[in-house]
Amino acid sequence: MPLILSASAAQAADGPVIVVTGKGLDSTPATPAYSTIEIEREQIVNSGSDRLEDVLSNIAGFQQFRRSDSRSSNPTAQGATLRALGGNATSRALMLLDGVPLSDPFFGYIPFSAVAPERLGSIRVTRGGGSGPFGAGALAGTIELESADADTLGLLSGQALVNDRGGTELSGTLAPEVGDGFAVVSGRWDRGKGFYTTPQDQRVDATSRARYDSWSASARLVQPVAENLELQLRGLAFEDNRTLRFDGADNGIEGQDVSVRMVSRGAWQVDALAYAQWRNFNNTVISSSRFTRVLDQKDTPASGQGGKLEIRPPLGDDHVLRFGVDFRRSEGDLFEDAYSAFSGARTEQRFAGGVNTDLGLFLEDDWTVGPLVLTGGVRADRYRIADGYYRAQDDAGNLLEESFYADRADWAFSYRGGAVFNAGEGVRLRAAAYSGLRLPTLNELYRPFVVFPVTTMANAGLENERLEGFEAGIDWRPDDNISLALTAFDNKVKNAITNVTIDTNLRQRRNIGAIDAQGVELASQLRFGQVSFDGTLAYTDATMSDDGAAAALDGFRPSQTPKWSASATLGWQPQDGMKFAATLRHVGKQYEDDQETDVLPAATTVDLFAQLPVAGKWSVVGRVENLFDETIITRNQGGSMDIGTPLTVWGGIRYGF
Which of 4, 95, 14, 5 minimizes the C-alpha distance to 56? Predict the structure, then answer.
């Protein structure tokens, strides 16, 4: 519920009532034309792991590049995608927090640990749908995270938990009314010695647990500045440090975000947003044969600036027209040192970086004609890839290699359109067609990397990816307690960027002809008194196609891409504050590489959650991850493997949930 307060200048009974929401403009009538699922706050804050990526896994078809969560993976593998449009660690789905893109300006990964689930009010996931008014990058879909308001959070809330390996989670939120609006201040700290990601029979003396230590702090201020005009300020800071596989194989990320948003809900509706982001990444690579440092990616500073202006003029009840402009600039540099595995001496210093910009213009109209809603929109992007460079020098500073890449710029055009027909008795028919755009990231263009023993080379000549897709579906919602949806889709990513094997233990990022994905998605949300059920199922037949240099990949499935994925959560709330939930998830077989040689077997897991009130707003809480201790293979390179989260039991206390 929104916070409703009287304006300070209008305390009289006949004065205007100011509604403070902390949100953007409402979704448009044709939003249901696309395959859209909303995750409610009850699901968000009651998961087995209390991690954002775990909550998003309730949507079958959502995945990161690897199956590991953000406690036991390299951050650069945390790209988010939908509909099996993977094969690449960069995000092909656009993730927004209160309208601000979350993806790293240099790498394109999502800093999941920066966003505590308890701060969120809802999540809306649109699978497919094209770029439209969301911005370039919404190739596989859009994930919109919306912060909770003060009324939802309560004045004070928090939790403290510990797991069976001594890991801890501590968080707290203060959400007072301030002036005629509200403020929210929140912090979270997670740390633990972790588990062994290396299987027992592959461990050596240098093998390390997946230690993690991360914190995140955020602040929001929401204030009315005039009738129907609202100001929203937000700040975020975070740091996340981890160790993977071997002692000394440490990596870390840090970041800071600030944003300002003005939302007008008058006759002319306006959503104006501006933001700035700063990020950094570091990573140490340890040889898997000599267990010494071979690469120190010591500094990768990056920054992003952007904004969006959306305007909706008053055209009557039958038309919702929105038009506007958005902009995003990404700049970053790489500083890394290579070391000899034998002598330990520094052998090479490497530097790389560049600047990407995208200016988008969009126009979209929803037209309601009785039970039929039609929607159509166009988008034009002026993009620029500039100032790219790569330089290598020896330990003494003597130049070994230096390349400056030509600037390039052009226009790209995309569209989307659809229809929704309300057939009665809760039945809704829908169809849509769309296109989208994604620029290669600075990481893909300029940064080589090593996951020993495999080296992957950058490619400054990469072209933009382009999505073309269509879908049709049927929804049935006879009342507020029953919702069923079926969607069939066909999506194609042309010029898809993937890691192509070009020699033994050597890959390069390249554009291939396309990734074709056809599939079916099912979703259900059922409420029967104290019992609830939320389930999703996705089957996707995704293949790569190419008739050029990567013709050998033609017909193969993209790496890290399953055919089947499913999630089902059964909840029971026998009384206020008492909650129980069990979540079953399945991910089908995947391949580690583009050659379909190294298999990641299918995995099925069960998570549990329980909350019992004890006094007032206090409650005890228990969580279980991977109840049956399923072995989850997250990496398999010629038999060298990593595994995912084993059975983990959490217990603790909560206040205000």
Answer: 95
